[in-house]
Design brief:
The protein is built from 8 helices and 9 strands. The strands form 2 sheets. It has a 6-stranded mixed beta sheet with strand order 3-2-6-9-8-7. A 3-stranded antiparallel beta sheet has the order 1-4-5, with helices on one face. The relative contact order is 0.16. It has helices spanning 27-31, 50-58, 68-80, 112-118, 136-146, 189-193, 196-204, 210-218; strands at residues 2-5, 18-21, 83-85, 89-94, 105-109, 124-127, 152-155, 160-167, 173-180. The model has no long low-confidence stretch (mean pLDDT 93). The chain is 31% helix and 21% strand. It has 222 residues and is α/β, with parallel strands linked by helices. A hairpin with a 4-residue loop joins β7 and β8 (160-167).
Length: 222
C-alpha cells in the first residue's frame, strides 16, 4: 500500500474570505516527481489544473513550470483575492498509485471546521467537485456530522450551493456558503457533456468546449 500524504499545509491567512477545498493532489506531488509543467503548489498539476481556468478568467499569464516564481504568482493572486486553500484529506492509502478519489482507503481528514472557527472571515467554501463518493463535498458532509452540522440546500442546479450555521469559539454564529464546482478533472467532461446548459451553449456555438464551460461556471466565484 502506498501512503499518499498531502504535501502542502493549508494556505490560509487572516483576511481569507473564500476557501478552496479539494482532496489530494496526484501522488507525484507527494513523491517529489513533478512533470515539466507542474507547479509545486496547491492545484499545480498542469493536466488537472484549477489554475488554467483562473488564469483564463483573470488573464494572468501565469507560468507553468517548477520555478519558485510560478508558486509566488499563485500565492499573490490568492492573497489579492482573499482566497485560501485547505484540502480536506490529510492522507490516504492506495493500492494503485494514481489520483483517483475512489482509490483512497484508510482516509484521514483535516479539521476544516476547526480552521473555519479559527479564521472568522471565511464565508464561502469552494469544493472542487460534488458529492460523489470520496469527493470533497462528500468528505465535508462526513466531517460535519462530527460537529452536528447539516448542510441546507440553497441552489440545486450545478454548481450546487448549500449553507450551514457555524458557532465559533466566541459563541458567535455565522452563516457559511458551500459551492460544489464541476471538477477540473478530465473525468468530469462526460458529466459536463450531459448537462442541458452545456448542450444549449454547444448548439449555439459548435466551438464551445468543456474548458469554456468551466471558465463560465468558475468566473462567478473566482
Amino acid at each position: 500500500m502506498f501512503l499518499h500524504q498531502h504535501p502542502y499545509p493549508p494556505f490560509i491567512f487572516e483576511d481569507t474570505t473564500k476557501l478552496i477545498v479539494g482532496t489530494l493532489p496526484p501522488p507525484r506531488f507527494s513523491m517529489g516527481e513533478l512533470l515539466e509543467k507542474d507547479v509545486d503548489f496547491c492545484y499545480g498539476s498542469y493536466y488537472n489544473s484549477l489554475w488554467l481556468y483562473i488564469d483564463a478568467i483573470h488573464n494572468l499569464n501565469l507560468r507553468y513550470d517548477n520555478s519558485r516564481a510560478a508558486v509566488e504568482e499563485r500565492k499573490q493572486f490568492l492573497h489579492k483575492h482573499k482566497i485560501g486553500v485547505c484540502d480536506i484529506v490529510e492522507s490516504a492509502q492506495r493500492e494503485k498509485i494514481d489520483a483517483s478519489d475512489l482509490g483512497m482507503t484508510n482516509i484521514k481528514l483535516r479539521d476544516v471546521i476547526g480552521y473555519l472557527q479559527k479564521y472568522p472571515n471565511i464565508n464561502t467554501l469552494l469544493f472542487t467537485g460534488g458529492n460523489s463518493k470520496n469527493g470533497p463535498e462528500y468528505f465535508f458532509r462526513r466531517h460535519c456530522k462530527e460537529y452536528g452540522i447539516k448542510l441546507q440546500p440553497v441552489e440545486t442546479e450545478v454548481p450546487r450551493i448549500h449553507s450551514f450555521q457555524l458557532k465559533d469559539k466566541n459563541e458567535e454564529v455565522r452563516e457559511i456558503k458551500t459551492v460544489s464546482l464541476t471538477s477540473a478533472s478530465g473525468s468530469a467532461n462526460r458529466a459536463i457533456g450531459s448537462m442541458p446548459l452545456y448542450q444549449q451553449l454547444k448548439a449555439k456555438n459548435p466551438d464551445f468546449t468543456t474548458f469554456d464551460f468551466r471558465v463560465l461556471q468558475y468566473r462567478e466565484f473566482f
